[in-house]
Amino acid sequence: MATIRTDENFPYSNRDLSWLAFNYRVLQEAKDPSVPLFERIKFLAIYSSNLDEFFRVRVASIKSLIRLGKRTKKAIDFPPEEVLDRINETVRQQQLEFTEIYQKHILPLLAAINIHLVKEADLKKTQTDFLDKYIEEKLIPYLQPMLIVKHKIRTFLINNALYLGVELGTKGRTPRYAVVRIPSHRFPRFLVLPSEQENERLIIMLDDIVRYALPRIFPGYSIENSYSFKMTRDAEMYLEDEYSGDLIEKIRKGLNKRNIGASTRFVYDRNMPANLLRFLMQAFSVKSSDLQPEGRYHNNFDLFQFPNFGLQHLQDEPLPPLKHPTLSKAQVLFDCISEGDHLVHYPYQRYNYVIKLLEQAAYDPDVKRIRILQYRVAKDSQIIAALRSAIAEGKEVMVFVEVKARFDEEANLDWAEKLEKWGAIVKYSLPELKVHSKILSISREEKGKLQDYCYLSTGNFHEGTARLYEDYGFFTKDKRLTKEVDKVLNYLEHGELPKKPFKHLLVGQFRMRKNIYAMIDREIELAQAGQEARITVKLNSLQDHRMIRRLYEASEAGVKIDLIVRGIFGLQTGIEGYSKNIRAISIVDRFLEHSRIYHFHNAGEDKIYLSSADWMTRNLYYRIECAFPIYDKGLQEEIKDFLNLQLKDNVKARILDPKLSNHYKIDEGQRPFRSQLEVYAYYKKQLEASQHAKK
């Protein structure tokens, strides 16, 4: 997939097309025969879930730009009409490959182990008897057919709901059309059927159960054909004038409007007859630019529900989170943190130390105050439970809740209201800014003075995602950092602007960009002086044009730059005059690469930061982000070891080239090196060495 370049003096790739290239890397995992079968099915689900959100947010924004007209579009780097055309064509090609992977790879592999997906036409009497009972006892109340008469009778299509468009025939009459919703919001998408053969496992999809039921819900009609479709709607919240009125109330109203937003995509079975497609387009005011053909089934993120029948050998080998070699030995975590900084790497190591710290803080009589920034939390959050205990024990608890965490707004509002009822001080989103930092501060009385203990992380306070997302958590009592964390929290709690610049933390809205520039410029100076100059950066996304320009300048000065970027990638590598000294890879594997790391060689005096911030304009300008330095030399070495392991990956790494072709990074003659497994082995060896030393 070639990228668009609008400025020959400054090569960069469009963010949305580069994101589609990332999602294709997810699809590559579903295609990879070395990936266990049920994990391949899971990657199909991840690809589909990602794509749905992309259309609800990014494509919705592009269509809004198109509607705004020429004056606004002058300030846009890429013509939105051209980008939309490229998106639609790219997704069409990817969907064809998705169907091929599913039909020609996944289904035959399932059949080889005697798991079969059956359609309504394949059913035998044992299955029809079972389904007749299932439909009558459970399904029929939720099957609500609607006859559609063009320009007169139509139904509202709910966002991402699944529908069947049905052509009905009657003797001597013009065919009629109807719509039936597939009730996947009420019933499992996959149903295991009884089989007449031993060891045979039969599965039918809910879509085909509804197809089987069509004759009984349309009595008097013949079912000529039926084809699936769905509509995806704009999920963006357009919070006009965030500075006036009640921001929380505006967000609540935005949530109510989210599922009735403008159409961004009309997905349909590519085998749907032209006459039925035209009828549906006219009936539901669908534009040709909204059309997106797929296979027989949509909402393939429901493949997360696919039954695995307990076949563990067709799933990833378990990698249970390991104990931390030091924190695991501590009875009281405050004592352990007092002895030095500690770094925990998820999901390779356990997350429970964060929960344990909060629980110990809740019941420690010397703890006076807890302050925390919440972006996303688990459904049954142990973090929230620990905060509730702290409130009950009389601690002062301040929680800053970022309500504008997309698709978690409602959950965040609910938790915030509960915390307020329990007695917490709750602060909410700031106008025009997102608070994306992940910070916990605990104030404890020691020797007559308050001592702050801090936990900073690249990931959320979410024990669920900590089992899937690769992130770092950092425990410290270092006053250089805790004092500056206090300044960040005072700004968010009381609106107090810092009186002095931050010397240690890099904080979004407070010179983060300039501080990063200064470290890049230092490497440029070293390179120009003939010394070794090197930058290694790991990010989720790299899009900010000014940051890309600065990296180009560093490359041309002779700085060696390694980039590990999971998702959006606007920089173009290997271009003479710009980026000949820049290499970039992306790793997509069983764990979601989520940590952000900035490493500047600095003439051997390493500067290493862990961060919540990607190098995107939104992170550097419109969010409160935090990058925190790692000063401990041992922890620095651990992070450098991790980066080196990632850079050696020749199994799951893809080369990020200007065409975003996603070629695998293959080292000829070298043994296969899969970094996530190597990182796990690294920490296992570290733990074993610690246990051996204890003996």
UniProtKB/TrEMBL annotation:
Keyword flag Nucleotide-binding: yes
Domain Polyphosphate kinase middle: 127-306
Binding site for Mg(2+): R376, R406
Full protein name: Polyphosphate kinase
Gene Ontology terms: biological process: polyphosphate biosynthetic process
Swiss-Prot/TrEMBL catalytic activity: [phosphate](n) + ATP = [phosphate](n+1) + ADP
SUPFAM superfamilies: Phospholipase D/nuclease, PHP14-like, PPK N-terminal domain-like
GO MF terms held by the record: ATP binding; metal ion binding; polyphosphate kinase activity
NCBIfam families, alphabetized: poly_P_kin, PRK05443.1-1, PRK05443.2-2
Keywords (A to Z) from UniProt: ATP-binding, Kinase, Magnesium, Metal-binding, Nucleotide-binding, Phosphoprotein, Transferase
One Gene Ontology cellular component annotation held by this UniProt entry: polyphosphate kinase complex
Homology family: Belongs to the polyphosphate kinase 1 (PPK1) family.
